[in-house]
Amino acid sequence: AIKVEMQTELLSIISRTTQQILDMSALPQQPQLAAHHDPAQTQPLARPVLLLELLQTVFEQFRCLAAAHAVALRSFSFVADKYHIDVRLYEMPDVWSKVQAVLQLLLTDYLDIQNTASDSQQAPASFSEPTSDISVFFARRKPQRQKKTPLFKFDYSSHALSINSYLKEQHRDNMGFK
């Protein structure tokens, strides 16, 4: 039951923390937050300071939560060994996997990142899967690189368009077409 409800509870932590930070940002006694107040902005946590504060707070809460799970799992393991019970509810990689999935959801929502990743690049169900095995990172041989998809394309930005038109103009001038 804990493993099933873990993601829901982590999302609930993010939701409550977001609301608390928004409530605190509205208070005038917080000059570092109130200085960035823009009433025209209605999107939650649109201000970078608030997003940074949310991420720092959520990271700290998740570290504490993982430490609490580690203590609970050690205690459970001790009791199971003492009474010779062979039961495993979940393991720490399961906790970190859920934390990673929830943080990915948070960043995708708040940074408005389009889902350009293929199905093979989705969050793993567990850290014990070979695609996300940390031992591969520390192995002496270099692992094969996966095809990287760009997060952003700047081909049609005003800067890229002006650079391209400038380069075309320079090319025409060099070719003798004036």
Count of all domains = 1
Mean of residue pLDDT values = 76
Strand content: under 5%
Order of helices and strands: HHHHHH
Shape: elongated
Number of strands: 0
Secondary-structure content class? mainly alpha
Termini gap: 74 Å
Q: Determine Rg (CA atoms, Å).
A: 24 Å
Compute the number of helices: 6
The percent of residues in helical segments reads 55-70%
Poorly predicted ranges (pLDDT <50, ≥5 residues)? Answer: 29-45, 116-120
Largest sheet: none
Describe the structure.
This is Exocyst complex component Sec8. One of its GO terms (cellular component) is growth cone membrane. With 178 residues, this protein is mainly α. It has one domain (2-149). It has helices at residues 2-25, 31-34, 48-82, 92-111, 134-138, 158-175.
Topology:
Layout: H1 2-25, H2 31-34, H3 48-82, H4 92-111, H5 134-138, H6 158-175
Helix pairs in contact: 1-3, 1-4, 3-4
Summarize this structure briefly.
By secondary structure, the chain is an all-alpha fold. The protein is 60% helix and 0% strand. Mean pLDDT is 76; it is low at 29-45 and 116-120.
Observed structural traits:
178 residues, mainly alpha
